[in-house]
Amino acid sequence: MRASVATVAFSLLGCLLVAGGGAWAFSALTARPASAHLTALSSGPLPSASIASADGSSSVSATASLTASGAVDVEVPSIVGKPVKVAEALLTAAGLTVQTRVSDPPAAGVSADQVVAQYPAARALVSAGACVVVTYQPRTDAGQDPFVVVIDPGHQKKPDLALEPIGPGSTQSKERVAGGVTGVSTGVPEYARALEIALKLRTVLVAKGVKVVMVRTANDVDIPNSERAAVGNAAKADLVVRVHMGAVTDASLSGISTLYPSGNKWVQAIQAASLNAAGKVQTAAVAATGAHSRGIEGRADQSGFNYSKRPSIVVECGMMSNASEDARMATTAYQQKLADGIATGIMAFLQGK
For residues 260 and 298, is the Cβ–Cβ distance under 8 A? Predict the structure, then answer.
């Protein structure tokens, strides 16, 4: 789609307005330093310029563009009210660039890290690569509203093979909680090893100031996957991390992989942010352990993802079908490396690094 003569593309101006330094804000076809406008921009619209039509017969008030292409081919997503990390992921996925700024003064009655304003507005048509300015609620130095991470150690001592819908309202069903795998060299079940690693991960994250909610802290529980997802939803988790191991018929295969929700109607709202988290956690976990990277993978068939309303990932910490890796995951030292690496990736996601 191409713009009309009087339409301008939002491309570079929004980023320049909040960059400070030598940036300039354009208003009424005159230039003034952007620093003079920063306070006003916290709550109001960005400055505009009067742009004449090609034949000089009329003019419109519009935001000035520093590009001359006039191409308008991307609809800006609606991000107000979403966590800023989710907003960044959605905008990036739409092919747009992002400039974030803190709401000053803070907005009343708004949770930390929630988007309170965006410019251009939702559904505006802009050129590919255009900059969207995102204003969000700051966190306080007093430590209010810490990041919340829900940790779900996979499986449980006794599987629950009764069926539940694979997603809300679905006619397709799967087991409420599958049995998991067992280590070929240690004989330890996945549910037990997952809890060991998850508890170490909790310790690392708490030390970093994160509020951690555990789905389970014991093995002898009965928590269906839909209810596990509900824990993250109720906690308003910034991220849900499900700790698992894998197993395949080829005993030579080893390594770490990270899964994220993708490919169905239930996960559309969390897919982009979850993908972002998966990439950061996968990179950090592999770096910390030296394990082979099996990459990241989008999944549409996991109930734990499909019932979740919060960004979610599954970390497959290693292959219990590989004797060496199974034995390695049994050691405290390697479990700590896994916990440290996963935590590093989580923090990179939460802090937007």
Answer: yes
